[in-house]
Design goal:
The protein is an alpha/beta fold. It has helices at residues 23-26, 38-54, 74-83, 99-107, 121-127, 132-145, 164-174, 197-216, 229-236, 289-293, 322-329; strands at residues 4-10, 58-64, 88-91, 110-116, 149-156, 178-183, 222-223, 261-264, 269-271, 280-283. Keywords: 4Fe-4S, Iron, Iron-sulfur, Metal-binding, S-adenosyl-L-methionine.
Length: 349
């Protein structure tokens, strides 16, 4: 069985949208948009391959930006992937997709193309730009026709949380292969990040009910329960049980930050996670990833530092979202603000 290591690689900041929850535009980073030169792309790619050879991992790339297709050397890069028999996923926009583009993506090894829906029409177009909602739903069919798996991701905040069940209906109707959502990480934008733990639990319950109804009907959309707080919810309803084989001090799931995933920005900066503010650990154009892996990344693997999760019996599988904790409370190891677990819970030691 192959052991994969994933690289979320932002090759450019250029984008057709100005999303209100974007890390680049909401934080003011857009004053200096960056794109990698071809020489820098080659150096980054070779550094990633060198790291994977050292640790006997198979590389997997999530190409993003901005919109990666806008990079002038985008096709040259994915042809390089093809030459090395490397598969990849695109996290991008719908605006430049057509049958020809999607077929070419498929031929170079693109397995999934992830688009975003962040509300029903009016809300989504407010988040992103007018016309984006209809264009996104339309391009799901174009992606599917090429044999690429279409993925829809929703960023959830208090601003749009009540629209998520409706989004699920629209995504299923459009024929998306995969649907998932993740929470908004406060990053200087004007979105409401005050969703309480119990409000979030109620959202998970509503989505779980809808997922099960669709699954019972034979719906082909796969509902990816991406947020790790699903583990806590499923434990409470009896669908997740702590395995008998579980050993103390072992980590079996939860956040992949500094575990089997890293982020590379167009500047070459390496982040433990793009969603975690100030998580830069080095620069791919100056540092060997393998050297950083055994030094700078260690600060994100001290699981006993989690203020709440370290006392929880679900620590090895959950730990919430450290990025949301960092964005809200200023520390990677702070409490996840949407974790509804009370101090008198039997899960907390």
């Amino acid at each position: 069985m192959k052991s994969y290591f994933s690289f979320q690689w932002h090759i450019t900041d250029e984008c057709d949208q100005r999303c209100k929850h974007c890390y680049i535009y909401s934080s003011g980073e857009h004053t200096c948009l960056s794109s990698m030169s071809w020489e820098q792309i080659e150096k980054t790619f070779n550094n990633c391959l060198d790291f994977c050879r050292k640790y006997n991992r198979t590389p997997y790339f999530y190409l993003t930006g901005g919109d990666p297709i806008l990079h002038p050397d985008f096709w040259k890069l994915v042809e390089t992937f093809k030459a090395h028999d490397i598969k990849y996923t695109i996290l991008g926009n719908p605006f430049h997709l057509n049958d020809e583009v999607c077929q070419r993506l498929k031929e170079t090894g693109c397995e999934k193309y992830q688009l975003s829906i962040d509300g029903l029409r009016d809300t989504h177009d407010w988040f992103r730009k007018p016309g984006s909602y209809d264009c996104t739903l339309e391009k799901i069919g174009t992606i599917n026709k090429a044999g690429i798996r279409s993925v829809i991701m929703t960023t959830v905040s208090k601003t749009n949380m009540h629209e998520v069940p409706g989004i699920i209906d629209e995504v299923v109707k459009a024929g998306a292969n995969v649907f998932a959502f993740a929470r908004y990480v406060p990053s200087g934008g004007d979105l409401d990040a005050s969703m309480t733990g119990m409000e979030y639990r109620e959202l998970l319950a509503a989505c779980d009910k809808k997922f099960k109804e669709y699954e019972a009907k034979g719906c082909e959309t796969y509902f990816n329960k991406k947020d790790h707080l699903w583990t806590l919810y499923e434990y409470e309803i009896g669908e997740f049980k702590i395995p008998d084989f579980a050993k103390p001090d072992m980590i079996y799931g939860g956040c992949n930050c500094a575990n089997c995933h890293i982020t590379v920005l167009p500047t070459g900066d390496i982040y433990a996670c793009r969603r975690v503010a100030d998580s830069k650990v080095g620069n791919v154009l100056e540092d060997r990833i393998g050297d950083l892996w055994e030094t700078s990344f260690e600060k994100y693997r001290d699981f006993d530092k989690f203020e709440k999760c370290s006392r929880c019996k679900l620590k090895a599988w959950c730990r919430g979202c450290p990025a949301v904790a960092k964005g809200t409370n200023g520390s990677f190891y702070a409490d996840d603000p949407q974790c509804w677990l009370s101090e008198d819970s039997e899960l907390l030691a």
